[in-house]
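Sharing a chain and its predicted structure for anyone who wants a worked example. Both blocks are below, sequence first, tokens second.
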Amino acid sequence: MKLEKLFDSENNTLIEKNGNKIDLSGCPVIDAVELCNEKYGNEKFSAVKIKWSYIGFDEESYNEEFLALLRDKLKDFEEDSKYVFIIPEADAECSSNDKMEAFAAGMNHCARRIKDCASVIGFAIPDNLNAADFMELLLKKHQHYVFFSNKEEVLADKKIVRY
């Protein structure tokens, strides 16, 4: 299923298809577990922090129950015309290449599980991963995603949105 691209980026700013610029300063950051357990407010744009441990550390331990709940909540957001971007968080040791690849694979698995949620604008680039590699991995199946960061060296690519 290919979703229509609803947002784009220009000069580190999120832009709606109609050309309106979106100011993400002060955008609420919601923990994914809290999101799945509660109804959230009236904000049109939010960030959702997803810890690696919520998804599972490898293919044998992916938490499909959590990912299904997350998808359901994001579908609710879609119905309410609310939008989110995902902030991956490596809450476990992630210094070796194998661990970094497993973390990226876990986030890619998460993206596959929420692939039909039009409420998802895209993903923030994890600080401990190579930005180009992470974007390439997710863009293979999710060409409509926009990428986000707070790191100045990543923001040098003006297509990355500052949050």
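Comments welcome. The two ends are 28 Å apart (CA to CA).
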